[in-house]
Write a structure and sequence with these properties.
Elements lengths: L1 H12 L9 E9 L7 E10 L5 E7 L3 E12 L2 E7 L2 E3 L4 E4 L4 E8 L8 E8 L4 E9 L2
Parallel strand pairs: 1-10
Antiparallel strand pairs: 1-2, 2-7, 2-8, 3-6, 3-9, 4-5, 4-8, 9-10
Length: 140
Amino acid sequence: MKGMMIGLLMALAATPAFAQAPVAATDAWVRAPAPGVPMTAGYVTLHNSTRRAIKLTAIESSRFERIELHRSLVVDGVSRMERVQEIVVPRRGEVALEPGGLHMMLVRPIGSVRDGDSVDLVLSFDNGWSLELTVPVRRQ
């Protein structure tokens, strides 16, 4: 029985969901929500060390009801946001989620989220990998 359990654990560890993702994150932070505003934004730079592009498809957190992927754009001189289904991290490259561009839209905080707090995020990719982050909350 013990041998079967060890074999099962080794098989699980070899699957993509349990393997360490070859995507790294830097410069991650969440903007402190303004008083009375039910959403805020989050930012991160993702680095891909693989030979193929990887798509960020979802982000979750226990501190927000939902998180959407968005991009900011200007149409006819008017700034707007547009929801996107995925964000491509180029092969052996990086993509920045930053103010004025691609970003996370964190909707309806659960409890208070203030400057100085931290937020746990789980980033999910199209190949089954996930990346867990603890991100600081700050004003700017």
